[in-house]
Amino acid sequence: MTGPIEPAGDGALASGGAGRLGRAAAAFGVLAAVYAGGIFWASDQPNPFPFVPSDLMSHDKLLHAGAYAGLALLLRLALAGTRLAGPAALAVAVAAASLYGVTDELHQRFVPNRQCDALDWLADTSGALVGAAVASAFLRRRGAAG
Question: Which residue has the higher pLDDT, 24 or 13?
Answer without folding.
Answer: 24
